[in-house]
Amino acid sequence: MKKVAVITGGRTGIGRATIERFQGQGFQVINLSRKPAGIDGCTSLIADFSHPDWLSAVEKPLKEQLKGCEQLAIVHNAGVHVNDHVLEIEPEEMRRSLEVNVVAPAILNRFLAPYLVPGSAIVYIGSTLSEKAVFGCTSYVTAKHAVVGMMRSTCQDLAGRQVHTACVCPGFTDTDMLREHVGGSAEVLKDIASVCTYNRLIEPAEIADTIYFCATNPVINGAVLHANLGQVEH
Predict the structure, then answer these.
(1) Rounded Cα–Cα distance for residues 201 and 84 (Å)
(2) Where are the domains of the chain?
(3) What's the start-to-end Cα distance of the chain, in Å?
(4) What's the per-residue H, E or C state across the chain?
(5) Which of 6, 71, 120, 157 is deepest in the core (most CB within 10 A)?
(6) What is the tens place of the pLDDT at every residue in 5-27?
């Protein structure tokens, strides 16, 4: 059986760990990201989701790689974190956030629709901020809330096709994105880790395991899963 996983944003962090997880289970993996993943056996196609015409550059090689696909897993992992205040939003930055986090997954779903045979799955990657908000992240919060809405719509619109979906919402995961967000401060990372009941950051491989579980278990359909080690409430 030819099993294919199309994973976006697989160069680092959760995306990279997810590629390795699916490869370990016999999936042929196609990565869509701005730079190659650099993983043996993984086909990397260059796509910048902030540009509306990104699909034109990868359409032909994607079709070639998907020939004979008997089971497809789509993992919408690519994302962009925009920090802004609701009264000071830069329209172009909000558009960029929505293009990458929301519009690109919709475009990819439409393109891959013919390959979504029974047993396939679409897994969206949300965030702790998919169902709440914090100060200074309006565009990101808005986009990640929209991701949950798209996942729930996916569940309803694909009813009867035996294609399931879920949204995995990682907590504080030790990724390049998080480290860049805090300016590489070890002290801030330590403070962030203390918010988790386990007093540590999540490893990307732990989120990859959760994503794989969702992609291969159809009983998980229309569900939002918060993978965050438990967060201490104040």
Answers:
(1) 25
(2) 3-171+203-226
(3) 49
(4) CCEEEEEECCCCHHHHHHHHHHHHCCCEEEEEECCCCCCCCCEEEECCCCCCCCHHHHHHHHHHHCCCCCEEEEEECCCCCCCECCCCCCHHHHHHHHHHHHHHHHHHHHHHHHHCCCCCEEEEECCHHHCCCCCCEHHHHHHHHHHHHHHHHHHHHCCCCCCEEEEEEECCECCHHHHHHCCCCHHHHHHHHCCECCCCCECHHHHHHHHHHHHCCCCCCCEEEEECCCECCC
(5) 6
(6) 999 999 999 999 999 999 999 99
Q: pTM higher than 0.85 for the full model? A: yes
Class of domain 3-171+203-226: alpha beta
CA triple 19-50-144, angle to 5 deg: 70
Take residue 208 and report the two structure tokens written for it.
Answer: 């990859």
Triad 185, 177, 80: Cα angle to 5°: 140
Q: Give CA 70 to chain center in angstroms.
A: 22
